[in-house]
Amino acid sequence: MSDIKKIKDEFLERLNKDLSIESVNQIKSELFGKNGKISSSFKILGSLPTEERKKFASDLNYVKDELQEKINKKIQQIEIKEINSKLENEKVDVTLPERNIVQGKIHPVSQVIDELSSIFSEIGFSVEEGPDVENEHYNFTALNTPDNHPARDMHDTFYLDDKKELLLRTHTSPVQVRTMLKGKPPFKIIAPGRTYRSDSDQTHAPMFHQVEGLHIDKNINMGHLKGCLNYFIKSFFEVDKIKMRFRPSHFPFTEPSAEVDIGYELKNGKIVIGEGDKWLEILGCGMVHPNVLKNVKINPDKYQGYAFGIGIDRLAMLKYGINDLRAFFETDYRWLNHFGFDPLDVPSNYRGLSR
Ligand code: DAH
Question: Which of 26, 158, 310, 314 sits CB 3.0–4.6 Å from 168 for a disulfide?
Answer without folding.
Answer: 158
